[in-house]
Amino acid sequence: MRYPVAAFVSGILLLSASSAWAHEENTVENTYRLNVHQKHGSGACPGYFEVVEKSRFYEGGFEVSAVAWLQWMAGPFSFVQSKEKSVTWAAKLDRPYEHCQGKARIATIDGYPAEGANHLRAHLGGGYIYFTLDISSYGDMTAITYQNITANNPSYRWAVAD
């Protein structure tokens, strides 16, 4: 199902009003909780992990940036695949998660149900985590403007133009 960018942006704006971390007038931090759905019979998996994104709003659109601090369960990360609207990083899972098999999707944003937010996901298996940023469902006016590895963790920035 495709969700319009306007609905997703409205959700971020509503959450930003309740966000305890608004640092600048046009900047908001939101915490995305990704629940890990463990495959039956696999090894130990984390129940969830979180990614904090900073959104900066400006006339004509907004940009979102983050460093996914996942070194507590895996690392160092490297690039696996990069396309126009998506990028995937991978890292070897650390003990005790090295035998985990599962998938992670956004469940909440700042503790609220994450309706329409589907740009972050992960696959855990084969001793690795594959972390993906995919903005393809947010429409043509989006672009990944930065992708890197910061302190052995995935880092990115993406933008939406009105």
Task: Give a quick summary of the entry.
The chain is mainly β and 162 residues long. It has one helix at 5-18, and strands spanning 27-38, 48-58, 61-67, 78-82, 86-92, 102-109, 112-113, 120-125, 128-134, 142-150, 153-161.
Helix/strand-derived category reads mainly beta
User: What's the story with the biggest beta sheet?
Assistant: 11 strands, antiparallel
Quaternary organisation of the protein chains = single chain
Our estimate of the beta-strand percent is: over 45%
In total, the number of strands is 11
Overall shape: it is: globular
Describe this structure in words.
The chain is mainly β and 162 residues long. It has one domain (5-161). Helices cover 9% and strands 51% of the residues. Strands 1, 2, 3, 4, 5, 6, 7, 8, 9, 10 and 11 form an eleven-stranded antiparallel β-sheet that branches. It is globular, with a radius of gyration of 16 Å. The two termini are 21 Å apart. 31% of the residues are buried.
Present the secondary structure layout.
Blueprint: H1 5-18, E1 27-38, E2 48-58, E3 61-67, E4 78-82, E5 86-92, E6 102-109, E7 112-113, E8 120-125, E9 128-134, E10 142-150, E11 153-161
Antiparallel strand pairs: 1-2, 1-6, 2-3, 3-11, 4-5, 5-9, 6-7, 6-8, 8-9, 10-11
State the main characteristics:
single chain, mainly beta, 51% strand, disordered N terminus, 9% helix, 162 residues
